[in-house]
Amino acid sequence: MTDVAGPASNAVSNEDGRSTGKPLNAGDFRIWLNKAFNGLAEVRVITILGDVTVQLTEKENKLTSDLQFGDVRTDAIVTVFNLADGDAINIVSPALKDDTTLREFHASQVESSLKALPANIAAVVELGKAIVDRL
């Protein structure tokens, strides 16, 4: 199955983003929209302390990041929330368990992410409803 390039493109695209030339239909768009909403089901906050190279890339107005770790062990604090089932996972490298400053920083990032989430999801839902209603 192909993926939809986006609501404004009015065309179906391959996985690499190139248009197939086929017109966008409601079924394809609903599949694309469902994938987009499924991507909202998880929030990840990662604080890394160590030798890390971050490569930021912008493609189709979306910023992505690629992390490359050096040969040295990297310590991290990781928090993952699954919004669909309410599960929360926290992982703290043993070397960071007593680093109060870093843990407080990580907690503030988690709090900021969770505060912004409801408004972001509401905006996406309203956009999705408006688009689906027009199909």
Largest sheet: 3 strands, antiparallel
Query: What share of the residues lie within helices?
Result: 25-40%
- Structural class of the helix and strand makeup? alpha+beta
Which of globular, elongated, flat, extended, rod-shaped describes the shape?
Answer: elongated
SS strand fraction: 25-35%
Reading the helices and strands in chain order gives: EEEHEEEEEH
- The radius of gyration is 19 Å
User: How many distinct helices?
Assistant: 2
What assembly state would you assign to the polypeptide chains in this entry? single chain
Let me know the number of strands. Answer: 8
- Structurally, the number of domains stands at 1
Report how far the terminal alpha carbons are from each other: 20 Å
**Unreliable residue runs:** 1-14
Quote the average pLDDT.
75
Q: Please list the strands of the largest sheet in the order they lie side by side.
A: 1-2-3
